[in-house]
Design brief:
Number of strands of chain A: 7
CATH class of chain A: Alpha Beta
Largest sheet of chain A: 7 strands, mixed
Organism (chains A, B, C, D, E, F): Natronosalvus hydrolyticus
Helix content of chain A: 40-55%
GO molecular function (chains A, B, C, D, E, F): hydrolase activity, acting on carbon-nitrogen (but not peptide) bonds, in linear amides
Structural class of chain A: alpha/beta
Protein name (chains A, B, C, D, E, F): PIG-L family deacetylase
Order of helices and strands of chain A: EHEHEHEHEEHHHE
Oligomer: homohexamer
Distance between the termini of chain A: 21 Å
């Protein structure tokens, strides 16, 4: 099984689906994380180029902890926009990896980069299987798209994955994003919830897990409903 | 695995979860249908006693087609009410069968008997495992309650079961309710949707199935969320 | 009364509102179907140009069965995007036909072409009556926009139209889309629900009809609420 | 056409559906208001008996202004409870008047009397047509139940009735409840919205009317969906 | 300011609103916790009477840590039912303490005792200010009722209270419920989320706090909306 | 405190948040209204340029009544579109005024200009604090964005502001929009609710106020939840 996670920024993979990706990898699935940007806008006393280099390396290290391959799609942090051309870039990315399933941000995420990533991925998904759309890679046919986000009133997970055995790996991966931790501690501001990165991740995973009889869990919605093999 | 379905009236089992019960039975699970009433209020030119006898027999025949055992809880059709005493009757029923899972009506069903059944079952569920509640049968510990209903804006199934291979069995079981078919054809009135019983059942199962990539499906919500073994 | 339906692809008219259009035509209303695209992307072993020609003819035949006129807006299948220029194309289309009401896709439809069509039509609707917007055709003033879609948790119809007397016409019209039936049977994939095109349409119409005391029905939401002449 | 409104307290008819009842009466329909209680708990420096007498007379006068007949069901103000016996009282009331449609409170109204009235009426509705339920009056078969309430996030009207031509009649009827106006001015407390009774009614009707192109409107939900004759 | 919290079981105060009560007490408000039951049904190898005595003492100790007074309403654990008589018991409790605000369970809580407590309190609230309802204590007029519950899709807090400075006190209070911790560890079953009592409480408070810029928070809905002094 | 309201058209400030802005100004806050357009498309027998001049003057007069400064952002009425460039225009506007809070349209408003304004403001908000985004003005850090709209099922205010003492000022400000009143009376059409401009505003404010114990109120949602100082 091949899993492709498309995330807007380097640390989004750990924050939203790191346990799930680690679980996939641990059971032998191929896992690829596609980073839309290198998160190069979230810093100070530096340049975008320097920050991009730093965060790319952190992303590579974090992905290695999770057991995932990486690819960078070269969009600009904070400036992802929806165009037909960008949608075709996502078509190329999906076709190249020909995943069984895709994980990405949910569409109503308030963060503009998350939202546009979600729309680009979803709309690309409707194109990747079309034979008449000729691109570098041949058509492929992923079975579903799973969406992640912060559990709030606008994101209510319906698919809950037990990541208890992978919470530690996820937290180790998250700690690779050193530059971001420093940035958040000094700058903070926009997202108060990052003030204690790892503790917040753990609390979120535990609060969700409680709903499903697990110690730690991550939650998703999905594009297509699917029937269950049996009453779960 | 033992499955207990608690339904208000004889034909509710087929209408709401007949395919799922047949699927359970077909794979070797023990299935019991507990009928709150014999549906003895839904007739004319007859008496409640006569109708009760007729419909009990139909229920037994229909359950046999599905592969299920039956039990009758002797509530009065159209007059099920919520009391502590009635709730203890449900405790006794659940403890007697000690099921792994329970299926029943969803709580916001507009039909009073359906609604009260749902409340009695759910509230009994919170009592059945208590050691200090001493009754005839010892405590038991079902893992979950699944709720069924007509898919409408007030009932949105989140657990969808593919019953394609059991749709025919379900329809055959439904046809055992001869007295009800006649009653609905002549009386109808309240529930226009029963005018063509089996065709309506099939259309509902197909319309729901389409959402989940199945030809025919039945839908449920559940009391407790559960994590999925893997992204379904 | 003049009714304008704006649909993304040739078979969308039949799938979502074919019975309603047939009912309008049958009572003497003028009905026009505006096709955003010719559905020329949904094929294989062919070219877009060939497929466009085939499907345009099928669309004309299907519309003739319903009793509707057609117009083609020449957008590209699978690639409809929201721009101010495209919005003005819809302004021109609406002004040309000066309809009393407009029918189109609902805005949260997951299919990108459906969603963008919905946004273009709705936003054009806010422009068509403005005298200061000078275009080829004079301003017009449709009273409302009605939205259709697959009844799911994200599309809950509030206006239900009884199409029992027109279900057969609708199904005949749907069968004109021969090329699409073949494509769906061999390719399928994306939308499993099309595996049996006409049976699915009928089941959906029946499942919805049951909610409103009709054998077959189609459902809509609307842009503006309207008061009812009397309690329906 | 016969319309039966079942309200918990004397002034509820004017507050929630006075314009609609006046409209029915004005076009020649038979209108009956059944008062569950005489509102005899909402006073001070008086007794329940005295207040009941005063408010019954006010209710009669107000109903006369609307053009409605009245009946009193003799429940106790503030103490309406759901029992099978009380439900049968409502069965008797509905069968006696054999209405085409019934209007009553919506089920999630926070006021206990409103909520219990709603449940009693709805559940009685499921019983009134049953031949085997033998009571003083023969079975009847109303087509639908319409629910009213204060438009809030928990009550979202889907059926909007233009009462512009009857707003004045409704306000005149409301002014008949002199004792209540005095009580609300001095006591208030619980329901701040009654501080200026008639102005609040008018503002509510106007705010709702704006949504549907009317100057004044009242809103309802309904038990059964119905298809519309044509797109309203 | 006087705050009255009405909870079904001894540990519910800490679980749902312990930080808020501690915050009230710390700033000098009078805080009273009314326990509907002593939680005497949740044990084994004991009797209800013994367990009641143990848990009452634990409740007293926990309340002392929070800085709250206690009262016991003598309902039976697991068997709270809605009756007019029980509602009047709540009227007496509320009038005796004459609180400014009341805190209690939210109405859609799946636990039967929580749900019935919520209904009894809310419905009593509508009675406490009525002069014609003569009881031992005179009428009182609390300004609002606040509801608490586990944050899930059925309980979405709209009023969020920062309890960061009181989280430690709350956890200390929770640890007073020694008998319950043991029961949950050995029995568990029904509510998996209690497996690690205090860690779960902290995770829930942190996950909610993140949404509102606080380290730890508790959430409520309220019966009446209120305007804010200024945009918070 | 500095408040920045970004509105699509000159009269939107009064319609949606005029009382709140007047309340801010009255207590000494700096208030600035940024008009995306001059509403120059909403007229007849005139030119866009003439109408822009007229409405700009009306906007200046209305803002003066409220006690607010104004700025015009020079977008085209009826043609606001989302682009990265336009988003940066909003970044510049927000940075120039460095507000504590921002007020703007809610994102699901059906009016295209309102919706695009909402998206541009929200997405700019995520950029204004970034040090690496170098523009004419330095980074700033507003604490929150508040959204306004017509209270309907798609806009449910959660933050309610009592504007009773400022309703008169708001109405006086609204009356400055003379050209618009005339336009709406003769043209109307699109928005029937404007037929009596000021009475509709007052009814809306009163109907909302009733929910929160105020005579007149305005309602908002917000981007970030915030904890309350105390239970409001």
């Amino acid at each position: 099984m091949h899993v492709l996670a498309v995330v807007a920024h380097p640390d989004d993979a750990e924050i939203f689906c790191g346990g799930t990706l680690a679980k996939h990898a641990a059971r032998g699935d191929d896992v690829t994380i596609a980073y839309m940007t290198r998160g190069e806008f979230g810093g100070f006393d530096t340049t975008e180029a320097e920050l991009a280099a730093t965060r790319e390396e952190e992303a590579r290290n974090a992905a290695a902890v999770l057991g995932a391959d990486v690819t960078f799609l070269d969009f600009q942090d904070g400036r992802i926009v929806y165009t037909l051309e960008n949608r075709l870039k996502l078509v190329d990315c999906i076709r190249e990896h020909a995943p069984d399933i895709i994980l990405t941000h949910f569409a109503d995420d308030m963060h503009p980069d998350h939202r546009e990533t979600s729309r680009l991925v979803t709309d690309a998904y409707y194109m990747v299987s079309l034979p008449l759309l000729e691109r570098e890679h041949p058509p492929c046919d992923p079975t579903n798209v799973y969406y992640f986000g912060k559990p709030t009133s606008s994101f209510e997970p319906t698919v809950i994955v037990d990541v208890t055995d992978h919470e530690e790996t996820k937290e180790q991966a998250a700690l690779e994003h050193e530059s971001q931790v420093a940035w958040l501690e000094e700058h903070g501001g926009i997202d108060a919830e990052f003030s204690d990165f790892v503790e917040s991740m753990r609390a979120t995973a535990h609060a969700l897990g409680r709903q499903a009889g697990a110690t730690y869990a991550e939650g998703f919605t999905r594009l297509h409903d699917t029937s269950v093999d049996y009453l779960e």
